[in-house]
Amino acid sequence: MYIGRLHAEHFRNLDTLEWWPHRHFNLVTGQNGQGKTNLLEAISVVAGLRSFRSARLQDCVQFGQERATVAVQAERQGVRCDLAVQFGASARKLFVDGKPTAGVSTYLGKLVAVLFTAADLQLPHEEPEARRKYLDRVVFNHEPAHLGDLRQYERVLASRNSLLRQARLGPVDPQLIDVYDGLLAQHGARIIARRAAVLARFAPVLSEVFARIAAPGLSAEIAYAPRGVKKADRDVADLQDELLGALRERRDRDLAMGHTTRGPHRDDVGLWIGGRPAQLHASQGQCRALVLALKIAEIRSLEASLGEPPILLMDDVSSELDAERNRALMTYLEELGGQVFLTTTDARFIRVAAPRQVFAVHAGALTPGAVLEGAAQGES
To answer: Domain 1-112+310-380: which topology?
Structure first.
């Protein structure tokens, strides 16, 4: 899987960009604020229809413009496909091979990108919401239909919470809450089931990878902690019944608090090192090794699912890793053989011997450098 061409128009500070990236390693250099992350964000948006920096796509539209466009020529398992997304304040349009498509089901899954940012290195210490979002990104890349259930769940949750707040001012129709409960249980059960299924495949790979890059004898685990059902790895119908029961049981408390206290929007992901919670007992180096193992495990899991490596987007990660873990990551990426996009303020942080090209970004403009085939940059 790789991108042969990227076109961006009025996307943040990328006014009009045409880019033919290298098939393997693309090293994007430049000072902060010049547009390096915008390039990765554009790829992320055209692949998954969501920005990793903003909840609203319209925030990515260049100031003073009505809409933005991102398009790629992608290839998956030898089949080429043109994908494009156009969006603004009023509407979003999707195109596959130049033809508009109304539904995301025919669009999603044709280009799969894994994102790794410096902020991810703080994942063990973040609030549960950050770990939920991380898990949902992983699940979405494995199961694109997950995005539809997430969006439906979020809409219903917002409506139910609004009704709960209204109830604090006066009577509301309990049958309407029943309707919302049923919809939350329906979409929530599928969200929980997918999260559990993907983590079940993902967890053993994480343990194996962590054992290779961390201190000898140190183990790592990842565990799904749902809030609404007692056990997640069950039939969707059973999960739906249990979640519906939990919502009804907590209704009086929800009415008193003005928000929904059970459901997948309250779930967490437990990260453990050496049998103890990572956020409480692990060192900074151990936590970073854990996150690095998470990303490598995610790529390996997707490679097994897709039949080829996904595209990897790395935003200024190498400068945050110590030399040993940086070397472990680059070695793995070279062995993987997929297409990688890395941003950095200093190309000396990127030590790879694989075929690669360096691109410089300044004020949203991209300048290609030489294609390199020999020893790792920064090495003699």
So the answer is: Rossmann fold (3.40.50)
Give residue for tokens 């669009």: 107
Per-residue pLDDT of the chain (380 residues; tens, 9 = 90+): 999 999 999 999 999 999 999 999 899 998 988 999 999 999 999 999 989 888 889 999 999 999 999 999 999 888 999 999 999 988 899 999 999 987 888 898 899 999 988 888 889 999 999 999 999 989 998 998 898 899 999 999 999 999 999 998 888 999 999 999 999 999 999 999 999 999 998 899 999 888 887 777 889 999 999 999 999 989 999 999 999 999 999 999 999 999 999 999 999 999 999 999 998 888 888 888 898 889 888 888 899 888 999 999 998 887 777 777 777 778 888 888 889 999 988 777 777 777 888 899 999 999 988 787 765 544 43
344 and 316 Cβ atoms separated by less than 8 Å: yes
Q: What are phi and psi of 246, to 5 degrees?
A: -65, -40
pTM of the model: 0.85
Cα 236 from Cα 273, distance rounded (Å): 31
Structure tokens at 290: 């854990």
Are 28 and 343 a contacting pair, CB within 8 Å? yes
Domain boundaries, the chain: 1-112+310-380
